[in-house]
Amino acid sequence: MGATSFLRSLSRLPTGRRSTNLSMVTPLPVQSRFSEEVTEKLGALRTSEYEYASASWLVEVLDATIVTQKVAQEEVIKSANNVTLSKLDKETIEAYLGDNIELLDACNGLVEKIDVVHKYEDTLQSVVRSLAIEGRSQEMLKECSKVEAQCAALDKCSPKLCRLMGRKETTHVNQGEQDLELHEALSGSREVASMSCQLFQRALSFKSRQGLLKSRSKLSTTWSSSLNELQVALNEEAERRKKCAPWMMNELEKMVMDARFVQDQVKSQKRSIEIDDLRRSCRALEQVVEPLEERVRELYKVLISIRMVLLGILSKC
Fold it and tell me: Is residue 73 part of a domain?
């Protein structure tokens, strides 16, 4: 065989081998609609134009959480209509229903805390009016301290919610018997809702300097990676802030600082007490708390809706 023929034969051999190898490559799994939408929402939260501790960003968090629950519900209904649920699927649903109760309790706790923040803000507004008219408000300031203590008493995150966030996510070895899309939807919606509730609880905190608990999901999905990236960014921000102040919503922190400044002026018996900053911060907080409360209540309704769908599915099995 001549040199040229020999080289041509060499050039042909790898071609056939490459073709054989390519035909054996397993294609990448198609990303589910749930994973696509949740990944997009989490990525938008991480790169948002708003500060992580601002009310505007928290509104985005709750909106993303609500959308996540709605998409999960659609996936659950689709799975129930398209496949016969296995024993593992039923166990997944039953486990989620237990977690769902904790999330509903967390929403109730957030509404309770919002009510106390409302009371604190109303009391401070009374202080401002009293100081503007009479120039004194010792009793009202004492009442503010009591309400602030009440807020602090609600700071402790629910132990059950903490366990929900820190619990390892498990997948069964024999996944052929498990509806993975159903499992992903329930797991993902629970993780996002848990993070959202814990984050909002921290935002209304008067003393907590802790960061967020990270989810411990073992699911290899784009949404779980995006969730981990967001939590890393949030914990870095919490670490930066805790040296000087607790992790608190910016608007609430501003009002608290202005209230303490006024309190110091009253204690020092100054003739002229500056109350304009406190008046403005009270109004600012009042404006942002209402949309946050609306979204917490909406999240509660969506969680109830998912619960009813799952209970209906189990009743037919």
Answer: yes
